[in-house]
Amino acid sequence: MSLNTAFTSVRSRLIALDRANVDTDAILPKQYMTSLSRTGFGPYAFDNWRYADIGYPGKPRAEREPNSRFCLNQPSAQGARILLTRENFGCGSSREHAVWALKDLGIVVLIAPSFADIFRNNCFKNGLLPITLSTAQVDALFATVARHPWDEWTVDLQACTLSGPQPPILFHVEPERRRRLLLALDDISITEQKQAMIQAYEEKRKRQEPWLFS
User: Fold this and answer.
1) Global pTM value
2) Which of 149, 184, 185, 159 shows the shortest CA–CA distance to 9?
3) Transmembrane residues, as ranges (predicted)?
4) Which CATH superfamily is 9-183 part of?
5) Which of 126, 152, 154, 153 is closest to 41 using CA atoms?
6) Tell me, what's the pLDDT at 1?
């Protein structure tokens, strides 16, 4: 088992979610956590902000009333894959569903001054790249996106750069996490790489302590 695709680079417009302390219940409200399939949650991402009416599982999208002021409903956000936001993104509960919802929505890169620890870990485990930049850098990005919402940006994980209408910005990702994203590896596939060692250990145990396996 591995992540669906290797992460190398992404070119996209930025979605500017200008809010701090966005918690996981805002990302995916609890009433939509109805399965463990990891898919199908995108339509409910940011549901309380994305729509002006009250939603519930199974309510047809055609019957929903979009909130025209919300960032995801802006024309420039359609098809965009990079979400720019503020500090402490993903705080609150540890629900992994929040990351699943973002990925199902098409988001593959998050940019913020900081992320909640558990949420950040869940991002890497699911092939979503959280980029931490300084507050000043994030402020500058918000200002640029406000002036040029249709400009495209490139996130290059190999070079660890964010490039766009301004000079490239370097970002840091821990080497092992970067390697896993580049090779589309998750915890299970990392373990499977050591299958020969595991089998050798099991055979040794059987020889040394056969009564455990009778």
Assistant:
1) 0.88
2) 159
3) none
4) Aconitase, domain 4 (3.20.19.10)
5) 126
6) 37
